[in-house]
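This week, study the protein below.
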Amino acid sequence: MTEHPGFGTMPARLLDHRELGAQQLADRAGLDADEVRSVLSGRGPDAEPLRRLAPAPGFHAVDLFALAGAAVPEDMAPLDAAAAPWVKNTVTDTARLPAAERRALLRLIRSLPQEERRSGFAPNPPLPLAAGHGASVIRMLQYRNLSWVGMAHALASVTPTYLSAATYGVIGAGRTELTPRLVADIAALLGIGARDLAALTGVVLHEAPPPPAPEATDIAAILWEARRLSAEQAQHVSELARSLRKGCCDRHLADRPGP
C-alpha cells in the first residue's frame, strides 16, 4: 500500500511539471505568495486558498479538495447522490451516440434549472479511507457522482480500461497500484490532462498517452455538468439518452442493405 506523501507534494509536482513557481501561481490565483507556500508545505490546506488556487493551473476546485483528502464544501458537491444510477446510464447510452447528439444532451443538461439542495451529499459507497493516490483519484470520480459500478461502466464505455466495479474499491482502499494506462484513462474521464494527473499521483508515463477519444471528452463534460442535477432531472436526461440511442440503432438497421 502506497502512503500519501502529503497534499503539498502533489501540487508541487504539478508546478514542477508545468514549470511554475509559487510566486507565479500566487499571481495567477490572486493570493499572497505566503499562502501558496503554506499550501505547498502541507500545513493543512485551508478551504479558501484551495478554492482560489484551482483555476490557476486549470483545475476544478473540488478536485483539489479530493486530492487533499480534505472535506469538500457542500456547495461543491453533486446536488443529489440519488442521481448516480441515472448518471451512469446516461454515460453508457450517450457514449454510443453521434457527436452532434452527445453535444445536444450536454446543452440540455446545462439548460435545466438549478434546484435546491435537499440533503448533504454522501457518496455510495462511502469515500475510501485510505490515504494513497488511488484513494485520491477514486474520490475525484465519486465527486462526479459515480459509484464503483458507475466508474466501471463509464471507463469501459469511453476508454480501453475494462475493470470490475469491485476493483475500483480495491484501488480506493490502496490495495493496488495505479498504472499508467489507468491514470491516462481516468484523466480522460475527469477532463484532466493525463500528464497532469500523472504528475499529481507520481505515476510515470513511459510514453506519450494518445489524446482522449472525442466521446471521452464529451462524456467528461457531461459528467461535470450533471453534478448539478437532481435525481428527477437526471432520470429525464437518462431516458432521453436511451431513446436517442435506440433511435440511432433503429436508423442503422434501416440503412443496412438487404440480403
In short: The two ends are 58 Å apart (CA to CA).
